[in-house]
Amino acid sequence: MTINNPTPMLKQYQELKQQHPGTLLFFRLGDFYELFFEDAVTGARELQITLTARHKERGDPVPMCGVPHHSAASYIARLVRKGYRVAICEQTEEASKTKKLVRREVVRVVTPGTPIDPQLLEPRESVFLAAVCATGDVVGASFLDISTGEFRATQATGREAWNRIRADLESYAPRELLFPASLAPLMKSGLNDKPQTETLPLTPGKDSGNAESLMVNKFESASVSHNPRLFEAVLTAIDDWLWQAEDCAAVLREQFGVRVLDGYGIASKSEAIRAAGACLRYAHETQRAAAAHVTDLIYFEPQDHLVLDSITVRNLELVESLGGTSGRSLLELIDETVTGMGARLLRSWLLRPSIKRAEVEARLAAVSDIYSEQMKRDRLRTLLKEVSDLERLTGRINLGSATPRDLNAVARSLAQVPAIREILATTTSSLLQVLYDSTDELADVRELIANAIADEPPAKLSDGDTIRAGYATELDELRSISRNAKQTIASLEASERARSGISNLRIRYNNVFGYYIEVSRANSARVPADYERRQTLANAERFTTPELKDWEKKVLGADERIVQIETELFNELCREVASHTKRLQATARALAAIDALAALAEAAVRRRFVRPTMHDGDEIEIIQGRHPVIEIFNDEPFVPNSIYLNNSTDRLLIITGPNMGGKSTVLRQTAIIAILAQMGGFVPAERARLPLLDRVWTRVGASDDLTRGRSTFMVEMTETAAILHSVTPHSLVLLDEIGRGTATFDGLSIAWAVAEYLHDSPEHTAKTLFATHYHELTELAERLPGAQNYQITATEREGEVVFLHRLERGRASKSYGIEVARLAGLPPAVLANAREVLARLERYELEVFADDEQFGSAALEKAAALAGRRKAAAQASLFDLVNQRVVDELRDLDLAHLSPEEAKALLHKLRERIL
Fold first, then answer.
1. Which helix (H) or strand (E) holds 653?
2. pLDDT digits over 415-433, tens only?
3. Range of the domain at 497
4. What angle do CA 810, 816, 820 make, to 5 degrees?
5. Phi, psi for residue 36 in degrees, rounded to 5
């Protein structure tokens, strides 16, 4: 929107807005941030604040709305969480020093992927900005947490490159995803409609082209055929010219102060370089700062950890419960951390468990060391409670957004390090010894902050009293003048009375003349010679003196100068602290690891977990394993179960049993135990021997994806396809009720084929737990050498089923579905009818032919042939479900002389007999 003859201020606004397309421009005017034109309409709607207008008297009023600057952070946070970018425009010169319009500049752009303000950050969760790019079949990606400086990059090649990168994107779950504008059609595929803005150019005024910056909350790559799950992210298209490999490499070299990138493992990884360089440049441009706390780039190979896709994370309820109930996820159960950075590290260990045995064993040994000594553990955790989030504090200091209290928090945190190191000095764990060596006490930094910052500084630097008394002489003098102005005036007034002999002499102040000496007309002849006349009144004379002038300058400029000096000293202090960034980060990361390890030890004590035994073989042996979350929240005593799998004799376990018996629980607890072990934690079992897995796959539950036109069964089959395409012999697969979303024979056939494929396929043979109500699948154990039958036991007492929840070898004979329906509250009449129908079905073992209107002689011929084939097949017990007498009658029919009407009547007759 434009207006004719805009005021200088609105013209300035429009120029800044043109330089920052795709943002909501928060324009500083006095004590408010104002939004104008379309931004005002959007802001008023999203923030639910009043929309007003400027220049209402004209024919083209300008829509506007505003928020107070002191509370703007909360409003900005609300907009960013909704997917908007906010450009913050400040006055960059003092109004008192210019007669023209004050200069304003955008000092920072806040986006979903680049938050540094506490209002936009969850203390216990990382926030990643990601970038992805591709050339041919080579795909690169990078991940940057601007709040801490964590920076990673990867690259994949080949037909599965997108799938591998996709797995990492799902694992890191970035809030914002950057990509070249030329990839926009690919990234837009399958997206829901959301507000769209222009491409965000990183060079002000650069033509942004025709690509769009997509404010969407879901990402799906059209080339990813086997894993269609979505994750939330705002997609931001960046002009292609900003993805040049050499330019991106130059950005990285300048950031790290090196001539070559060989030391970072990416010298020959062109797509990783492009992704990392574009990601870092975007961070520079949005923060308007060098982001000096990004001191390292870690290259990793795709899937260099135990891969847990979003489906598995959801199904196993690793970070949140399916019902959304607080406290009922695995993470919430084991998260005994006492620092934000420790909580984030623990979460990353859970979502990306290690596949390196040495690393897993080192963590287990460290947890064991802390676990075994309660006094050491309690003392360590008590000290860690006094440690603030050093990672994010260091980031804010480097980005110029730290407050005085942030610096004090750094000093207070560092003060705990000597005692923490003292505890670690007596440990035997090699990992804890490494962490001991990595915790720098930074006594010099702590002393520097303690000497400069007051014990109780204000929340904002502008409030004053940030710098400790005695740190700067000039500052102390100005504070004395400012705080003692009345006493100084009284003292000066008394001195002048004594010098002049005028008893009614007064020192006064007004906005026109400032401070002055007032003498009555009757005493004007007694005024000292050095007095300078300022004003003559009817009954008095007003004067000043050189001493009063000097003092006036000090008093009137004291507060302003105090703020200026404190700001200069504080910024200088921040620069000095920032020069120790690498030391601070090393200590922060060591303390985070100590906190995470201590949390795992504390959880093990509280939940009765034991240390697992890791090995290089393929056996999973869990003795009396438990589901840790269900165990805590279940009203009944939890029944533990043992399980054994390997890649030869016990690689496919067919688990049958009643509804509500606990089949799904056994599946989930097996995966949870394996994940806990590989993240370095103890496990809920009496004993556990475990191999290193490369991936855990799950296909459990049922859900529609109607927004993309996919039924429950389609979702089920798509997820199953992803497993069959990508599973390896080092994977663990959990399948629960495959094939239940379609017709009985269709579903049974699919379930049978999936089970056989997972058993037989040489490259995809995985350890598989297959829970099912298709009891016919139990025959697989007789046909396949690596298949075994297990059942969840139940018994009937006085006409009611009793669930025993025990896993035993063998096959179940019933599912007790009607009994579960009774427990759910179905009406008695419905239950009675169901039992009657079930009794007939079990007696005749019938196959019901649907839609008898379509049957004629050809249909009967097919039915007879089908019955004959099933009777003769080696797997007859699986497929011969038709009552034998009906089959015999069908076989004896003279089909050639049977009319359609006779066929239809016969079918009605047979149906009456078998129903």
1. strand 652-656
2. 999 999 999 999 999 999 9
3. 473-570
4. 135
5. -125, 165
